[in-house]
Sequence to fold (666 residues):
Amino acid sequence: MNSDRYEAKRIAEDLEEPVDEASNLAQKLGLQPYPVNYWIVDYDEMNELIAYGGFQKRYPHWRWGMQYDQQQKQSQFLGGKAFEIVNNDDPSHAFLQESNSMADQKAVITHVEAHADFFANNEWFGMFSDDPDAAAMLARHSETIEEYMQDPDIDRAEVEKWIDHVLCLEDNIDQHRPYAPVETDDRDEVLDRDEDVEDLETKLDELDLSEEVVGQVFDEDWLEAQRDEDGEITFPAEPEKDVIGFLRQHGMAYDRDAEKAVTMTDWQKEILEILRREAYYFAPQKMTKVMNEGWAAYHESTMMTKEAFAGDDEFVKYADHMAQVLGSPGFNPYKLGLELWQYVENTENRKEVIERLLRVEDITWRTLHDRVDFEQVQDLIAPDPDLTDVPGSLDDLDPEDPRVDADALDRARDGEIDVETYPWKVLTYEGLAERHYSLVQPQNRGFVSRIGQEELERISRYMFDDSRYDSVEAALSDIDYTRGWDRMFEIRESHNDVTFLDEFLTQEFVDENDYFTYEYTQSTGDYRVTSTDYEDVKKKLMLRFTNFGKPTVVVEDGNYNNRNELLLAHRYNGVMLDVEQATDTLERVFELWGRPVNLKTIVKELDEHDIEVAKRRDREPEPDEQGKLIRYDGEEITTRDLDWDEVEHLAATDVDYDTKPDEWLA
Fold:
């Protein structure tokens, strides 16, 4: 064993207790994670794992080397550091960098436990599989593709090109449907008919007829009539969002030597389905980035600081670690997610308090601010001192109290549990919820009193319990301290980033956390703050997360113009396509369809004169929206204007998020 492996083994031994206790604490806090296997890796191995998406084996492709190089340069020149990576699997596998300090390792372990809980319990991850067995699946995919590349009858370069074609569309799946493999046992009616016409063309060529006879009898109009004899067939019946699946079921490969579409080979079909399956596997991670990272950051902070998982000599180091994570420049899913989860907890706990106050005699939603002493409220909702000082109250704790773990209390009194280090072991979920009640934390002490009249009226309107209290003291004597956490677990189970933001990003949240929108303005030629309204902030964020932040493109017709051409349609939401990238992608799609491909979209056009006038008047010019059809026939790209009635159905009247939980939950 070399010195590096000795060092890794030593680190692993030092981490055995933190790993075990982090898992125990996570379960006390209500988390139900997958079992986690932890691995110690060096700097280069960590970069490789990040490039591979958290797995040790992936199919051969140049993209992994590019991502490895990008990660290495980011660390080298931009000061970024990868503390860990964890994958969605049962068991999950987490990789810790051996150069991390003990404070960093503990932070990573607590962070990972929350990720593993999210993987195991969020419904969007369950849509791929209840038991993903991802490491084995990706290893099988790697071996299959590698075998094709090594097959002497298959050109390795052709396999690599085929992968490139498919990867251009890896986000063009229907992530709101469970994954199911594409079945292609039945031949496609349109393809069969078109191949019959091609066979007829071939037979005519073999007859060696004169050009005069072909021109007079068997011309293009005659061949076209053979296609049209059964009338025009349009499919799919409804626009299909799973573009890769549609191409897998109905597509053909283009044979450049024969200059025509041919049936995909077995290896082409299998690789296309492999990459489609992987796209569905990774989709939930893209759909829940803010929720998942915020969930992990929230529980990491709870364990490391509130339960002092970071020792006295590690706390400053951990604070620096967390500051780096939350202070990363640009869009930061850790920060946004953490703030939203804390807001959810605070608002739900506040609702519990307010509902009780509104049941006190002579207090209504109109008079609450005048009649309630909020300083008194803060004192009344403070946790039981026995729960905040477990070591000093060990003899006073009641084993019959639902907030106390009776078995652990007995062992603690017998000296079997170090309550100075692990006081949480003596408490249950209910006890920990009260111990860490969010509304009494210093940064949240004014949260109850800041509730607005509109929110008070809304809470009052939906209060159906008519029980009353004689005093504020009586009303708050038995509040449900677990309500905030319980609500968080409900949300963790059913939401994705889009629905999470849509439901919980409010004006109060935007104001408290200083969010705003900004735009590039044509009149000034720079970026300006444009709004602090929560609806504007929400829409901006929604566009970032809807369909992974990528344009939504669907299959509108697989027999466009009755010529077996493919028609794709861009669902325009006010953000136009990058036309250059769109045309490059069409060329890739052509290789998977085998026939001409078309794309309908809407672009914004600005007249230079209008821009100059807008600058002089210090206002934004109004662009014209124009429908376009981009077509690639295997040789050239053509673009033509479309009448508005041909693309009007593509233009959203508002941002269409299309991901409400009640539309997919059973």
Notes: The radius of gyration is 30 Å. The CA atoms of residues 334 and 385 lie 32 Å apart. The chain has 29 helices and twelve strands.
